[in-house]
Design a protein that fits this description.
mainly beta, Immunoglobulin-like, 8 domains, six-stranded mixed β-sheet, 90 strands
Length: 977
């Protein structure tokens, strides 16, 4: 293991006048070459070295010497160091305290001169030091300013120090798109910059060192939010001369926001901080407006809008058409336009209040039109609406005159037969009812004209008769004398030819002979007959006889015509029904069924006289028939049934037929829906059930979980040996050989683990050793258990000791306890390290596929006691001016107060100094507070050079002890080599 070197320099005694030939300065505890530009002191940096060492080379230091330093900020801070006891070595360690001596300085000059000379003495020596600004120190978590996804981000992580900086990532993650310091990175600035690629909150811990070795360990939290966006819908339009107001809004990003806009209508302005648009527009038009929002991080969002500014409204809307409107006439088409002025054009017309004259309507394009249906004098209100929604209305009056009075009945009246009742109603149009009728001339004898204009009666003579009808309406009667008239002629003819046979004709039947004789009256005999539409199988003779044997049933329509010798004709349509042949059941067979399943069938018949009525005997239990022929129900028993069916038509005729129906047993099914869960190592039982088929049943299964068996009776039993949720198939077979299968799943859980015991560890142990750890259960477990051991160490002071770990490496180890066993297959060593503190070992229990760790998790604590320092090794090596002692050891309390040395001379040699005790508390306090010591626990390497006046061969060996607040180490000796 490589160890850092702590240099403690001492000067051996001398008798000559002090002479300084060289002065070297460096930071105590630093490793490798000095930083850029020479040695440096870090201002106000608790984690950086707070002392520096001076290596003074010269002779004659028995009188002592003086060390002082001057910073460039305040000369009053000058300090002089003068040892109370003249040093005997050629080196001295000087600690700079307090840090405020150089907190404001940028450089310090160190000067050394003999004790009995002045600073300006020629023997003085100087060494410049640079003051390194201290790295910022953090407590808790540093919350960085928020960033926006896909927008460049740049923020300083820390202040102070001297670049280049070494940054490593202890934990994460960092946001995608921003730097990831794993592996360790080097950079020349303190910026955290990039373009975030994902949203979320990211927490990460960094370890930062500057070029001088000053360090800090900050934790950061950085939130990346969604991209900044403007959330407004389209901006509202406005009107010239009217105030305008609207507030812009945004979402996401990091408020507060700032707003800008271009293209706003003249007269409108935007408040950059609130996003409010206000003012009074002074120019009409459509304006494209571009809006941009910027958040506190510099992220931006934009949107495009279109705003229309219109001019003020048009002049008032009015109806220009005068009233009253031109008059109209009943029955004569009427069209008249309305007119308007003002408004914004695009007029729409409507009837606001009425009514308008019957038959007339007002269209939306401004016309009153239609055909008046009655005389009327009306007053109504018309409304017009322009394209902006402005309205105007006006009252109008309109007179509708009656239509001209006209007798519309033709002058030549149709001939009427003598001896037949006569009724002719003379028709009139126009005018204003009621009408008054009169007649002049010759009416047919036996007829007269009624006051309502009806000519009626029974003509008793043939011939042609001429007469005049006059009519007067109520309008003309009110206005004064006046009527209209029309001449008519009416011919009375002999009686008409007619068929006297009535409809319907008697029914016929398919296959049965049929005959009907038709007769007629009136006209001029003899008669000639013809017919169309007679039933198939029958004919119609010229003498009027319908006869034959019908070949098809159904209703028929027979058209019969008779002609007399005067060429007159009469036609009558007759209805005739031919009923079917004998009643017959047409259903060929009935379907079979199954017990417990719905059964359905339909019966059918032909012939007879529908509708039919059905009945059945011998149906299976649970099945019945309806009068309409539907058979249905749910069979209750299996077997073969003979069913006798009877149908009766509406004439009372019956027909019967027998059918054979087989009802099968119900289908075989497994009725068990699921089975209970089980526990590994615990007896299990379940029973499968079935229904249907033909009992008894026989059960079997495939793919059963290990440890379980299925009996032929359907009983599942055994003791499961493995956890999981396996699926398996169960099959049942009935006595008829029918088989069905179904897949089931059973959840097999592990039981709670037995108590865990740690053995092999003492409650208290000394540092620097190793113990063996074994684990065991109070009782056996039915499955293999992997015990994951996790180690945590809490030192009494200072940094963690990485040497505290399992012998397998790291702070995690695994031990497996086999199923059925109580002891782990192996044990594991525990390295106790070199630092006093507390070791806590926590166990996690993992069975196949499951975490079975109880709560709280089993744990064991081991106390590492603070002991006296331990010297692991000591060497002493001669050189040209003396010798160097190197001590390797550890101090579990992480502090040392002094080092004592005892020198043994070679035979015949006397030593002026046989022993030496040196205070080393400040030196080691600085070392153990430095992050450079963290990888080594409490271990150290102490190098002490000695300068010998005379022959270095005069010293044979050296014995050293180290003392701490806990105690003193055992002595360790080394012969000089």
């Amino acid at each position: 293991m490589n160890r850092p070197f702590l240099f403690l320099l001492f000067a051996a005694s001398a008798l000559a006048q002090p002479t300084i030939t060289r002065l070297d300065a460096f930071i105590a505890g630093a490793t490798g070459a000095p930083g850029p530009g020479g040695p440096a002191i870090t201002a106000s940096a608790p984690l950086a070295p707070n002392s520096f060492n001076l290596q003074i080379t010269g002779t004659g230091f028995n009188q002592g010497f003086v060390v002082d330093w001057i910073d460039n900020s305040n000369a009053a801070n000058n300090v002089t160091f003068q040892p109370s006891t003249p040093p005997t070595a050629t080196s001295i360690a000087v600690s700079v305290a307090p840090p405020s001596l150089y907190a404001a300085a940028t450089s310090i000059t160190i000067r050394v001169h003999p004790f009995d000379t002045t600073i300006t003495n020629a023997n003085s020596a100087t060494s410049p030091f640079t003051v390194n600004p201290g790295l910022s120190q953090f407590e808790g978590t540093v919350t960085l300013p928020r960033g926006s996804v896909n927008f460049p981000y740049s923020q300083p992580l820390f202040t102070g120090g001297t670049p280049p900086y070494t940054i490593s990532q202890e934990s994460g993650p960092t946001p995608p798109g921003l730097p990831n310091y794993n592996p360790t990175a080097s950079q020349n600035n303190n910026l955290y910059a990039g373009t975030p690629a994902a949203i979320g909150v990211f927490n990460f811990l960094l370890i930062i060192y500057d070029a001088w070795g000053a360090g800090t360990f900050p934790s950061y939290s950085l939130q990346i939010v969604s991209a900044l966006a403007i959330t407004n819908a389209p901006l509202p339009n406005g009107t010239v001369g009217f105030p305008y107001g609207w507030n812009l809004a945004a979402a996401n990003g990091s408020p507060p926001y700032s707003w800008t806009a271009s293209g706003l209508p003249p007269g409108l302005t935007l408040n950059a901080s609130t996003g409010a648009i206000g003012g009074t527009p002074n120019t009409a038009g459509t304006f494209p407006v571009a809006v941009q929002v910027t958040d506190s991080t510099g992220a931006t969002g934009s949107a495009q809008y279109s705003v229309t500014i219109v001019t003020p409204g048009p002049p008032p809307l009015t109806i220009a058409t005068p009233s009253p409107l031109p008059s109209g006439t009943v029955g004569v088409a009427y069209v008249f336009p309305f007119g308007a002025s003002g408004g914004t054009g695009g007029y729409t017309w409507s009837l606001l209040q009425g009514p308008a004259p019957a038959g007339l309507a007002i269209s939306s394009n401004g016309f009153i039109s239609g055909i008046p249906s009655a005389p009327f004098q009306s007053t109504f209100t018309v409304q017009v609406t322009d394209s902006s929604g402005q309205t105007a209305s006006k009252d109008f009056s309109l007179i509708i005159l009656p239509a001209p009075l006209v007798i519309t009945t033709p002058s030549a009246l149709p001939a009427a037969p003598r001896g037949s009742p006569l009724s002719i109603k003379f028709a009139v149009t126009g005018g204003v009812p009621p009408y008054t009728f009169g007649v002049t001339g010759s009416l047919p004898p036996g007829t007269s004209l009624a006051g309502d204009g009806t000519l009626s009666g029974t003509p008793v003579a043939t011939g042609t008769f001429a007469f005049r009808i006059a009519v007067t309406d109520s309008y003309r009667s009110a206005a004064g004398p006046g009527s209209v008239f029309k001449d008519f002629t009416l011919t009375i003819t002999p009686p008409p030819l007619s068929i006297s046979t009535t409809s319907p004709l008697p029914n016929g039947q398919v296959g049965v002979a049929y005959s009907v004789q038709f007769s007629a009256t009136g006209g001029v005999p003899p008669y000639t007959w013809s017919g169309a539409g007679a039933p198939a199988g029958t004919t119609f003779s010229p003498s009027g006889l319908l006869s034959g044997t019908p070949g098809a049933n159904g209703p028929f329509s027979l058209s019969v015509t008779v002609s007399d010798s005067a060429a007159s004709q009469a036609t009558v349509t007759f209805a005739i029904t031919v009923i079917p042949a004998a009643l017959v059941i047409t259903t060929a067979s009935l379907p079979n069924g199954t017990v417990g399943l719905a059964y359905s069938a339909s019966l059918a018949a032909s012939g007879g006289v529908p509708p039919y009525a059905w009945s059945a005997a011998g149906l299976p239990d649970g099945v019945s028939t309806a009068a309409g022929g539907a058979i249905g129900g749910t069979p209750g028993a299996a077997g073969k049934f003979t069913v006798a069916v009877t149908v009766k038509d509406s004439a009372g005729v019956s027909a019967s037929q027998s059918f054979s129906v087989t009802i099968a047993p119900p289908p075989l099914v497994i009725t068990t829906a699921s089975i209970p869960d089980g526990v590994v190592g615990t007896a299990y039982s379940a029973t499968f059930l079935a229904a249907g088929g033909v009992p008894p049943y026989t059960w079997s299964a495939s793919g059963l979980p290990a440890g379980l068996n299925l009996a032929s009776t359907g009983a599942l039993s055994g003791t499961p040996t493995a956890p999981g949720a396996p699926s398996f198939t169960v099959t049942v077979k009935d006595s008829a050989g029918t088989a069905v299968s179904r897949t089931f799943q059973v959840n097999l859980a592990l039981p709670p683990p037995p108590p865990l015991t740690f053995t092999g560890l003492a409650d208290n142990s000394n540092p620097g050793g190793q113990s063996r750890l074994q684990i065991s259960f109070d009782s056996a477990f039915p499955a293999d258990v992997t015990v994951v051991l996790t180690l945590a160490f809490k030192p009494d002071s200072g940094f963690d000791d990485p040497a505290v770990q399992f012998s397998t490496g790291g702070r995690t180890a695994r031990i497996t306890v086999s199923a059925g066993s109580t002891t782990g297959q192996t044990d594991v060593g525990l390295q106790l390290g070199t630092v006093a503190g507390t070791i806590t070992i926590t166990a996690q229990l993992l069975a196949p596929g499951q975490d079975i760790t109880p709560s709280p998790a089993p744990s064991r604590t081991v106390r590492i006691s603070a002991t006296a320092p331990v010297i692991s090794s000591i060497t002493a090596t001669r050189n040209s001016t003396g010798f160097t002692v190197v001590i390797v050891g550890y101090a579990s309390s992480r502090e040392l107060t002094q080092a004592s040395f005892q020198f043994t001379a070679t035979s015949g040699t006397n030593l002026q100094t046989g022993s030496l005790t040196v205070p080393i508390d400040a030196l080691f306090a600085t070392w153990y507070a430095s992050s450079a010591s963290a990888p080594f626990g409490s271990q150290f390497t102490l190098t002490v050079p000695f300068t010998v006046q005379g022959s270095p061969q005069s010293i044979l060996s050296v014995t050293a002890t180290l003392t701490s607040k806990v105690g003193t180490s055992a002595p360790a000796s080394a012969n000089l080599q």
